[in-house]
Every structure is written in C-alpha cells, then in structure tokens.
Amino acid sequence: MRPEVLNPLFAAADSLKGVGAKLEKPLDRLGLTRVKDFAYHLPDRFIERRRVGALAEAGIGEHIIVKLTADQYRASGSGRGPFRVMATDAEGAQIALTYFGRASFSAKKLLPLNEARWVAGKLEQYGDTLQMVHPDHVAEDGGTALGQTCEPVYPLSDGLTGGRLQPLVEQALDLLPELPEWIEPSVMDRRGWPSWRDALHLVHRARHKEARDRLAYDELFASALALMLVRADNRRRKGIPMQGDGHVRDRLTLPFALTGAQQRSIREIEGDMAQPHPMLRLLQGDVGSGKTVVALLAMLNAIECGKQAALLAPTEILARQHHATLQEMARGTGIEIALLTGRDKGRARESILMGLLDGSVNIVVGTHAIFQESVSYRDLGLVVIDEQHRFGVGQRLMLQQKARGTAHCLAMTATPIPRTLLLAQHGEMEVSQLDELPPGRKPIDTRVVPTERMDDVVAGLVRHVQSGRQAYWVCPMVHENEREDLAAAEERFDALKAVLGEGNVTLVHGQLRPEIKDANMVRFASGEVAVLVATTVIEVGVNVPNASLMVIEQAERFGLAQLHQLRGRVGRGAAESVCLLLRGQTLSETGRERLALMRETQDGFRLAEEDLRLRGGGEILGTRQSGETAFRVATPEQITELLEAAHDDARLLIDRAGANLEGARGEAARIALYLFERDYGVQLLRGG
Ligand code: ADP
Ligand code: MG
Questions:
Q1: Is pLDDT above 90 for 637?
Q2: Three-class secondary structure of residue 61 per DSSP
Q3: 183 CA distance to ligand 1 middle (Å)
Q4: Where are the domains of the chain?
C-alpha cells in the first residue's frame, strides 16, 4: 500500500481545476495523468524578460516588458495579411504589435486605442520599424497578470498551450506535501541541495542546477535501491542447485565450434545454476554474437536435471523463429520443444498445456502467454527472457517474479549497455558478456545517401533482387499520428511493388493482424518474397541470412542503438552486405554526427556510448520502445555525474537500515520508491 502522504500526488489529473475532457488527450500524450506528473513536468528552458521604461533601452531580440499605448489599427488591404496595432512608448517611440490569423480578433480587445497597457514579448526589427509578433502577455497593470520576468517554457503537445499548462503545474506544486528526507544529510550539505519540495518549486521558477540535480538524484537513488532490494531478496530465496551430467548436451551436434566468449558465458551460467539460490544473470551480446545457443545449453542443463525451461520472446515473430531454430539445433537430442503464443487456441493449446503439466514438454518457447495463470508447469527450472530490453524494468521484474519460486532466470539483451547505465538498469543481476563475434563475419558496407537519390537506390535494389538476394526496406515511425506513419510505409510498399512486381514485395508493421504479419514474415524468411518493407518491428532478432541489403529511410530519425540493431539484420550470410542510410535534406549537427558514426564503426558498445552522449539514455535503456520510462527526470549528463553517488548512498542505506528499510531514513526511502514507482522493491520487502 502506498504511503498516505503520497495520496494527493497520485490523484488523477482531472482533479486539477481546468482539466476537462478536451485536455485529456493532449495531457495523456505528455504522460501527465496524475498530479505528481505535473510537478515533475520540468521546463525545457526559461524566457527571461527585462522590464524597461522605454523601447530605446532594449536591444533587438531581447524579451522585454514595457508600457505601451495603442494609437492606430492597421489591417492589411486584402484582409489576409497580419493585423497590426501601432503603439508608442513613454518616449513616443513607435512599435508595431503584429497579429496573424485568428489572433487578430482578440488584439483590439486587448489593446484598446489610447489606453496604456503593459506588454511582454520579444523585440524585433521589421524593415525600419520595431515590432513584436504575438506579444506573450498584455495586461492593464504590470503585476503578476503579465507573466513572470522569468517564465518557464514547457514541453507541449497539440491542443495544450503554455498558458493552459502553467496554472495546472502551479496547482500541482501547491499540493506537494512535505516529505521526510531520504538523502543522507551529509550529501545534502556537501552539495547544497534543497529539500524535495523546495527543489520542485525551484525548478519551475528559474534555472537551478542544485534543484534539478537533487530531483535527478532522487530518481537514480530510488532506482538503485529498488534493484538492490530485488537482489537482496533473491539471495534470501532458496533455489534448486542444478548440475546436469551432460547426457542431453552430449547428443547435441552443433555445426560450429563455440567462441571463447560463449564458452565463458556458459561456464558462468552453469556456476550460478549450481548455487542453492536462483540465478539472476544478464547475458549481454551484440547482434549476431550467438546468444541463442548459449540459452539452449543452459536450458539443456536444466533438462538434464529433470526440469523444464521456458524461453520468453517479446514478439510472436521472434518466438516462432526461436522455436524453429531451437528445434533444428536440438534435433538429435530427443527433447520436446513447444511453441505457445497468445494466439494459440483450442485443441493445440490444450495439448501443449497438458504437456507442460505432465512434463512431456521440456522447453516451451513463447510470448508472455507462457506466464498466464492458466499455464502450469510440472517443474519449471529455468526461465530465459530474450531481448529483455524490450520489456521495461518493471515488466521484466514482474515476469521474473511470476516465474520465481525457485526457477533460475537468464535475461538476454543485444543492447550494449554502457557501464554507467549497467548499474542503473541491471543492479540486481550478474552480467556475462559475449564480447566476441563468431569467426568469419564480414563487415557491413554502410553508406549515407541523400533521399534525392531515391531513383538510384531503387535501381540498386532491383539489381540486388535480380541477383537472387533479398533486402529489407525500413520506414521510420516519425509522426505523432500512427496512421500517417503507416501511410508512409504503405506508400513505399506500393511504389516498390510497382517496380519489382506484386509478388516480390511484402509488408510488415505493428498494425497488421498478427496472423497476417506472421504470414508475410514467413514468406520473406522462406525466400518466397525478395523484399520486406517494414516499420521497426523487424528490429528484434529476425534472422534471414540471404537478406544482404538494408535500406533505412530517414535514418537520421533513429537513434544509434536502433540503427545498429536494424543493421544487424544483414551481414548474416556469406554474401557481402550493404546498409544504405537514406537521409533527409535538412540534417542537424547531431544527426550528421550520428550517421557518420554508423559508417565508421560496427562496434555496438562504442555506438551505445556515443548514443548516450548525443541523445540521451532512454533509448539505450530500451524503454522508449516499450513505453515505460526508466528515467524521467535524470538526463544523460546527470546519470554520468550522479549515478554512482546515488548507488553508494542506496548501498549505505541498506547497510544501515537493513533490507527491510528500518528506521527513519528507511521509511523515507520507501516513500521515494513509491514516488518513483519503483514499488516492486517495496513489494518484495513484504514478501509479495
Ligand atoms: P544473437 O546473439 O543476435 O541472438 P544468434 O544466436 O541468433 O545471435 O546467432 C546468430 C548466428 O550466428 C546464428 O545463425 C547462429 O547459428 C550463428 N552462430 C552462433 N554461434 C556461432 C559460432 N560459435 N560460430 C559460428 N556461428 C555461430
Ligand atoms: Mg537473438
């Protein structure tokens, strides 16, 4: 149960005055659903205004507050141009207050002729007159109605203006309770940090590094603490030591020798599984580093001990592929591998459920359907979570939880997580790294191509297909509006069909019915169709070795980690592979740098570090895709700067207060866990 003191913060957004049905969607898009979200909706920047007695005191480009008197209205001749209110200041200097479109209607009301008004806005030069376009504020007196001299500028969404949002933030701030302090007093002193409540007030008033840092630290601290509690809980849990005798693995005939990194990882996993408490290990390895076979060996270890194993995949496509791959690899072993997804119904499903219950199914591969209540196992010994970064931290821990009891857990990710983030994301786990690719991989020839050269790109695609090879064509999800995104992908699909012929192109995106999506995917994977047009759904784990060309449209829209994952779909067969990054006409400095890096390196770690530097941690943390934000407040710089200290602070707290978080600071820390929705940490305390 959430501590009562937090109740006002968790009240729904519509408990604030002025939030009606019309604002619901815009607020939702920004994640503003509860009172606390408004308090944590931090300004991007501030407009700083200077109060001046006369226009002559101000510079062009400066934001000012000045007293003006309107003396003439000028509508444009056609009625279509801007509406201008000509006004003079105390010294008789003239300025045009310019309004476009519908704003013109209110201009006369705001600025009646021959009356003085205080006006706030940005001073500009237009020809040889001064002007202010759409003044930010106009008021009769120069007091608060005019806006602050330092005004926060908030991230907004369609249908929500700053004027609407600010009073809501103010109301939320008024509702903030005093909370007990969870940060070590010496840390507060040394850094000169304000209390939690003061910090939230301050960050909305002006740029305030200490206040911002404090809030980021809170979040990092709560996250570190939650993961430590999970880890501590795990150590207390009894597991079943498993040390297979190799009788199943001996029957496995792999077409390749394991790499050194694979051998080392397997030894580490076996070491954990032999312990009397459940394994919690992350297997981290770049795309194509061969995680699947490591997972198989771990699962066979469990099976040799008479246990069952489950492999959880984030998508149905991937589950099917894993099922096929594992069956192929394990052919000689005589073990039973079943596939279970949310779509399987009726008799087939019943028979798999029976098999899991009576133990005749040794391995089940599937989506989260494998953890539904209706699914019971005879004796589940190991759970493998593939592409775990697709599941947010909370979701992952929940799955682990469900699988628990005594089962060992192996999570796998292709996302190279920089050291700084490893702690924040996986503090509860041991980590094994596959830092070596299987031999013989060819580098992927990566090129950046301007979109204007589309015709050449399509011609190249035609030649590629004619030579019997396959290709991916990826369209980004860029619009706020999903329909528009799909329109873009569908348009490209139609265009390529026109060139290559109906039967040679297929389309996969998230809005297709799963059976159609799968069918299309299978047609591509089997080689029947040469080109797969897709949104980023293919990012995860798909393996089609004959596909050796990857075209990514508007590549600058993607993060490096995502581009790296996408590119990793090619370069899997014997042929030389090419990746074409199509870029738009306008490219930001960062965009340019990102694409250049993609050309330069294929090292996932390097790309991840750079991505963190250039763009922010969210993507590496893999939470953007899964819709769960790991860090809402902390920026990449703050993560780098504060994470270790926050981690040490959490450690110290557990050392003193124990894993039950006793004492005053322990109590305060529990509140922080709820506040940042790391409550799974607290649930564990209560043996949940
Ligand atoms: P990922 O780590 O991306 O999940 P996979 O497990 O799908 O990688 O492996 C990628 C490809 O590499 C597969 O075709 C797999 O059979 C192959 N592979 C895995 N290990 C080795 C190895 N030691 N030597 C050669 N090929 C390997
Ligand atoms: Mg994989």
A1: no
A2: coil
A3: 46
A4: 47-153, 249-434, 445-601
